[in-house]
Amino acid sequence: CSSCWLLDNYETAEGVSLPRSTLYCHYLLHCQEQKLEPVNAASFGKLIRSVFMGLRTRRLGTRGNSKYHYYGLRIKAGSSLLRLMEDQQHLAMRQQPFSQKQRLKPVHKVEGMTNGTVAGASQQQQQQQGSGNVDISTQVQQYQQFLDASRALPEFPEIDLQGKSLPDGIELEHIKSFQLLYREHCEAILDVMVNLQFTLVETLWKTFWRFSQSQAGDATLAVHDESEKRLPKSCLVLLCKYEPVLRWSRDCDNSLYQGLVEILIPDVLRPIPSALTQAIRNFAKSLESWLSNAMMNIPEEMVRIKVTSANAFAQTLRRYTSLNHLAQAARAVLQNTAQINQMLSDLNRVDFANVQEQASWVCRCEDRVVQRLEQDFKLTLQQQNSLEQWASWLDGVVSQVLKPYQHSPSFSKAAKLFLLKWSFYSSMVIRDLTLRSAASFGSFHLIRLLYDEYMYYLIEHRVAQAKGETPIAVMGEVSTQHTHSKNK
Fold it and tell me: What pTM does this model have?
């Protein structure tokens, strides 16, 4: 039973603490291992308090980075959880007195081991690889160096009721409960993601949305009893049709997903192990079906909002992992002197005057701008610059071209138009190289794919910055517009 598991692994002690989210993370893994139906975070909190009477919570850490901790609780010396945490090279909270002024680091990053036995985990990994999935949660330490695990969830705003009257049966207390539960839910998602426990996201969604197979659902709500007390499912359903709550949920999701992208892929050009890339792509592929399934008894209005944000998140993960893959392939080309010399030789044979003549009919770009870009490109190639130097050059091109539109309402339109023109010009150059049967065609094709993809990435971030939104929110808007045009 869960109470026995808590008693087997934790004990009370003075002057120590454990992050609340870490305990819940351990519990979810225990349930997954034992094939048990987990209760949600709120119910789990009640269970802990019933086992360890008089337990207190404190919010620790700097503003914006603080987390709730259970004060006076530690992992038992003989527990496999503690041994794993020490293996992960994290300080055990039991050894950290409160007098220390440094920010207390949450002790997670230990998930994926089956009760401390590596053999069980590797067997699970083999099964998953056999089925086409890559389980990397058993080697968190190995892969965590590629993440930016220091990021905390940004503060969420208050729900703006926009002067709208509350739905019948809804009180302000219900709104506050929803906000609090949603915040706890998002913090739990961030914690399992940092620990590369991707499959637990589905579990968290199911517990938050009170998932049950039966439509009636009342009998199965026992598992969600603590959440029921804080916010009955009937009220949750009513709030899922209320415009201010829908808008707030979308904004929170965009904020959460942007944070998760920056944790998983902090630098799109930095090499990432293929197993991690594959795990992220598999996760992205599963997102929509997991979410739709977890929300099967939730009003369509909320499902649509949630799925739109999740799809923007999934698409961003797919694009960034593709961009990363292209970057690593291009790195090899840019470091090869013989290939660079061949590319220069082939590029000097391209009839750029003819390219500009044909392209200007469509793009209407100034001759001197195109000529400068051509010269800069050749010079940067000649200098055998690194991928990072090329990225800096591309960033400079974007800044230069979009400078006249800074703080202008037409910035977004100008940025997207530049992206089309850039793509059109580069396709014309590739066409010329193809017709000339250039020896370095393959290298150019690869570089062109990378630079187009990186330009998209840069423009996406510039547009988001100009709008004062996250890139995820901007991509979500595109998805919404696409859905509306399809439905017309």
Answer: 0.76
